[in-house]
Amino acid sequence: MAKPEFIIEVNHVSKQFEDGKFALNDVSLQVKKGEFVTILGPSGCGKTTLLRCIAGFQVASEGDILLKGEDITQTPPHKRPVNTVFQKYALFPHLNVYDNVAFGLKLKKLDSDTIMKRVRQALKTVGMSDYEFRNVDSLSGGQQQRVAIARAIVNQPEVLLLDEPLAALDLKMRKDMQLELKEMHKKLGITFIYVTHDQEEALTLSDRVVVMREGKIQQIGTPTDIYNEPINCFVADFIGESNILNGTMIRDRKVAFCDQEFDCIDEGFGDNNPVDVVIRPEDIYIWDASLEKKGKVEGQEDIDPDDRVPKGNFTKLYGVVDSSIFKGVHYEMTVKTENGYEFMVQDYHEYAPGTEVGMLVKPEDIQVMQKERLWNTFEGEVREGGLVRFLDEDWPVSDRALEPFSTGDKVEVRVAFERVTLLDHEDDGVLAGDVHFILYKGDHYHLTVRTDDGDDIYVDTNDVWDDGDRCGIQIAPSSIRLAKAE
Amino acid sequence: MKKLHFLFGSRRTWAWPYVLFLVLFVVLPLLLIFVYAFTTPSGEFTIKNFVQFFETSEAVNTFIYSIAIALLTTVVCLLLGYPAAYIMASAEMKTPAVMAMLFILPMWINFLLRTLATVELFNIFGLPLGEGALIYGMCYDFLPFMIYPIYNTLQKMDRSLIEAAHDLGANKKQVFFKVILPLSKPGIYSGIIMVFMPTVSTFAISELLTHNKITLFGSLIQRAFGEGGLQMWNYGAALSLIMLIIIGLTSFFGNQDEQEAQSVI
Questions:
Q1: Inter-chain contact A92–B179, Cβ cutoff 8 Å?
Q2: Which domain CATH number covers B76?
Q3: Is residue B6 predicted with pLDDT exceeding 70?
Q4: Of the given ranges (A241-255, A261-275, B4-18), which has the lowest mean pLDDT?
Q5: Nearest to B169 among A78, A88, A90 (CB)
Q6: Boundary residue ending a domain (A370, A396, A417)
Q7: Virtual CA dihedral for B183, B187, B189, B191, nearest 10 degrees?
Q8: Is the pLDDT of residue A55 over 90?
């Protein structure tokens, strides 16, 4: 048999819970031997479920999981050559450090000399040699986690699964442990699959990052790929800070946003197509524009004494600093442009609120993304009396929109994002829902509102809503467009 | 006013009624038992009461028999109670609260009434009263005291420990004997103490369920005080003291183990 290329293969795995919700929805992932792969996502995205399916604590409803080419989908956890490091350590409180680490080896009925040798080696690897006979309760969180790692690696698993192992530690300890984990991974050569909600941790540690959301994989790539080339707004927003704006791809290498045209390096989005534009706050060059504008200085050297701002024919944006926060290494400033867009900018120099500033972005730092959707679409059916049924409700629709259709026709309902009205009182709307995801687009918010039936409605609004807010949903009859269902 | 505030404002003041209660109903009676046990009816110091107990083989046998019955009851309760608690605490159980309730429910009724009902049941089915009935009755009465503490410890147990054991290669049996059982020790100890202590000193249940045919140590004490007249009070006090020491010892050792087990959780 040919040596399988991947040590772990997850093929179209879905996990549905009893209430019908999908924790995993058609997830596929291949992991190479010796790789450090991080599964990253907000809480409830299914990352832990995926790990538990690989560990065997949960059985996938659909799809299969292969280990070295062998199907292990139904194999119970104690027969899988993988070991897990749990978030809350899960050390056995009735055993001391040595016996905890030796637990797996004793079950394998190895002779006590071998066990002692391997336990000592494992404890040495995690730097806990002097703690052999300590009660696990007397250890600090970091020490307990080291023991938990030793307990897992002592079994020499094919794959080590780590379920948010550092989440319970304080920041300083977490940073130290990150470095140590990375070292350990290099030294041991074991494949690591690591689950975390901390994007910085994921970027620091991994060879590859898997970004998940609501049971689906959004993007798989190296940390630099994920950071520099996010595939959609969710990834851009979740990984690092970003300015996300609506834009138009005028043609290859030319994109318009903030009512201006910019050079970029992206191609293949077509001409005059709406796109999302991502600009990282640290990629924006900023300088004091008042000097430049007043014409007191001529050369760029004077406004940019440190020679930081790139020279050349770049499109520039002008605005006024709105707020500035010191973040340790840099200042984080919000700048409001002349035409009403807000940008987050990070720079080592502070420009006080009220300062007129100029900004520019290099073409390679402008990331263009395909829009996931241009409007809301729902499946609908024409009813009598000028109504169309969609989202399990009857909505009045303008006669003009209804004209080509007759009662009983299946139609595709389209509603523009900005034509959906959100109301403070849920009873005032035709439907009620919760604000589920918020994206700031520079001059407005793009909200995902989830109805009680689990349907998503996308809304553009200038009003400020909070995640989890309850609202009523209303759509004016004139805003509902109908198209023939395909 | 100031004085009153000083008097009632202090938390210590509020403890006085309880101190009084404890002195009157716990400390004083204990002292009396102690004094009576070491004196003759006329009030002179003696250890004759204890000598009399150890010289009367019937009394010593009753004592040993009572402990044996109590131990047997405890073991039966443990064997019945642990699986019940385990099933209730297991994740597959959809309504553990209802089950726990059903086990606790009989405790709402006075145990004498339940015992009388048990006697009637035995009569209805024509079963003989005696040792078997006694053990049955005591297990029935004390089973909840075994189930509840074990259920509690099992329920509070971190599920991830079981997963960790599976993950490290333990099959279901190994998980039980290497993780679940050792970790449920505190519950087992409390259960044992809560069943053993009352059963070793019981007398009403044994009298009712055996038609006075079997005498337990509790009955011996009861008879010394109830039927022996004032002359026997000193002997009865000595018996009580012996039983107190035995119970004290078991709970002392039990507590030690329990604390040890508790400290590792």
A1: yes
A2: 1.10.3720.10
A3: no
A4: B4-18
A5: A78
A6: A370
A7: -150
A8: yes
List pLDDT tens digits, range A293-348.
555 444 555 556 566 778 778 888 999 999 999 998 899 999 999 889 999 999 99
Among residues A260, A263, A230, the alpha carbon closest in space to that of A244 is found at A230
Determine whether the interchain pair A93/B178 forms a contact, defined as Cβ–Cβ distance below 8 Å.
Answer: no
Q: Residue A367: its pLDDT value, please?
A: 93
pLDDT tens digit sequence for B62-106: 889 999 999 999 999 999 999 999 988 886 666 777 877 888 788
Asked if A265 and A355 sit in the same domain, the reply is yes
Position A85 in a domain: yes
Closest-CA residue of A relative to B261 is A94
Q: How confident is the model at residue A285 (pLDDT cuts 50, 70, 90)?
A: very high
Which residues of chain B neighbour A155 with C-beta distances below 8 Å?
A: 168-169
Measure CB to CB from residue B182 to each of A91, A94, A152 and give the nearest one: A94
Angle between helices A97-107 and A112-125 (to 10 degrees): 130
- The C-alpha of B182 sits at a distance from chain A's nearest C-alpha, in angstroms, of 7
Domain harbouring A339, CATH code = 2.40.50.140
In the numeric block, which tokens belong to residue A3?
Answer: 């040596």
**CA distance linking residue A129 with residue A132, whole number of Å:** 6
pLDDT in tens, B60-69: 998 899 999 9
Classify residue A1: in a domain, yes or no: no
Residue B257 has pLDDT above 70, yes or no: no
Residues contacting residue A252 through CB under 8 Å, at least 6 positions apart:
A266, A267, A268, A269
Total domains in the fold of chain B:
1
Average of pLDDT values for B135-164? 91
Q: Per the domain annotation, does A152 fall within a domain?
A: yes
Domain that holds residue A100: 6-234
Give B-chain residues touching A149 at CB under 8 angstroms.
none
Instruction: Report the percentage of chain B scoring pLDDT > 70.
Output: 90
CB proximity list for A339: less than 8 A, separation 6 or greater: A258, A259
Averaged pLDDT for residues A134-163: 93
Which one of A77, A91, A108 has the shortest CB-CB distance to B167? Answer: A77
Question: Does some domain include residue B188?
Answer: yes
Percent of chain B, pLDDT > 90?
Answer: 30
8 Å CB contact of B166 and A88: no
Same-domain pairing of A126 and A230: yes
CB contact under 8 A, A78 and B261: no
The domain of B116 spans: 20-264
| Residue B260 belongs to some domain of the structure | yes
Tokens 């709105």, located at residue = A322
Paired strand residues for A351: none
> φ, ψ for residue A355 (rounded to 5)?
-70, 135
CATH number (domain holding residue A102): 3.40.50.300
Confidence of residue B127 (pLDDT cuts 50, 70, 90): confident
Does residue A78 sit in the same domain as residue A173?
yes
Q: Which chain A residues are Cβ-neighbours of B160 within 8 angstroms?
A: 86, 88, 90
Q: Are residues A344 and A395 in the same domain?
A: no
Task: Report the SS3 class of residue A14.
Answer: strand
Q: Would residue B143 count as lying in a domain? A: yes
Query: Around Cβ B99, how many Cβ atoms within 10 Å?
Result: 18
Question: Of B215 and A248, which is predicted with more confidence?
Answer: A248
Tell me how far CA of residue A14 lies from CA of A83, A214, A454, B206, in angstroms.
22, 12, 18, 61
Looking at chain B, which residue has its C-alpha nearest residue A103? B168
Q: Which residues of B touch A (CB under 8 A)?
A: 158, 160-161, 163-171, 174, 178-179, 182-183, 185, 261, 263-265
Which of A212, A234, A256 is at the close of a domain? A234
pLDDT at A303: 58
Residues A396 and A297 placed together within one structural domain of the fold: no
Question: Tell me: the pLDDT tens digits for A211-255?
Answer: 999 999 999 999 999 999 999 999 999 998 899 999 999 999 999
> In terms of domains, do A326 and A412 share one?
no
Q: Do B163 and A86 touch (CB under 8 A)?
A: yes
Same domain as A152, residue A59: yes
Q: Which two tokens stand for residue B88?
A: 């209730």
Give the total number of structural domains in chain A: 3
Looking at the fold, whether A215 and A341 belong to one and the same domain comes out as no
Chain B closest-CA separation from residue A94 CA (Å): 6
B168 to chain A, minimum CA–CA distance in Å?
Answer: 5
Q: How distant is the Cα of B218 from the closest Cα of chain A, in angstroms?
A: 38
